[in-house]
Every structure is written in structure tokens, then in C-alpha cells.
Design brief:
The chain has about 90 residues and is mostly helical. It is about 50% helix and about 0% strand. It has one domain.
């Protein structure tokens, strides 16, 4: 039986993390976060991974080479930019 890949997550099979232990990307300390981020450095799907984590509001782990804190900053910065764009567009 052939399993169909979900098009929304098919990119995951091409990630540097695809053949690594998932727990590596859910570390409990800063050193673990840095190790996981190094795996993501030259990942061909890091951008898709980051966008997936942001879109789905994934709160834990390293996704697309970013920590939870970094993703929260990205979300806040994008929201601020959207608000500013909306303000500029109104005038």
C-alpha cells in the first residue's frame, strides 16, 4: 500500500532533520537549542519549516532554525509591520 504525502507537510521529508531523532529538536536547554539550530543552518526546507511553525503557532521546539522565542519575535514584528502598512494605506 502506498501512502499519500500530505502536500502541506511533504517538504518535511527533505529536511536535514528527517533522519534524526525528533527529541533533538525539542531540547530542554540552550545548548540543545544551539545544536538543533546548527542542523537547520543549511537545510533546503528551513524557510518552509519556519513558515509552517509560524502559521500553526507551534510553541515548542526548533523549527526552521529558530527557537520559540525567536518565532514569537518574528510574529510580533510581522504584526507590527502589517499594522504600519495598514496605517500607511489608509492615508
Amino acid at each position: 500500500m502506498t501512502m499519500e504525502r500530505d502536500p502541506e507537510t511533504a517538504w518535511m521529508a527533505d529536511g536535514n532533520c528527517a533522519h534524526r531523532e525528533p527529541s533533538m529538536f525539542f531540547p530542554s536547554d540552550g545548548v540543545g537549542v544551539e545544536i538543533a539550530k546548527r542542523v537547520c543552518e543549511d537545510c533546503p526546507v528551513a524557510a518552509a519549516c519556519l513558515e509552517y511553525a509560524i502559521e500553526h503557532r507551534i510553541d515548542h521546539g526548533v523549527w526552521g532554525g529558530t527557537s520559540e522565542r525567536e518565532r514569537r519575535r518574528i510574529i510580533r514584528a510581522r504584526a507590527a509591520a502589517a499594522r504600519e502598512q495598514a496605517t500607511v494605506g489608509v492615508g
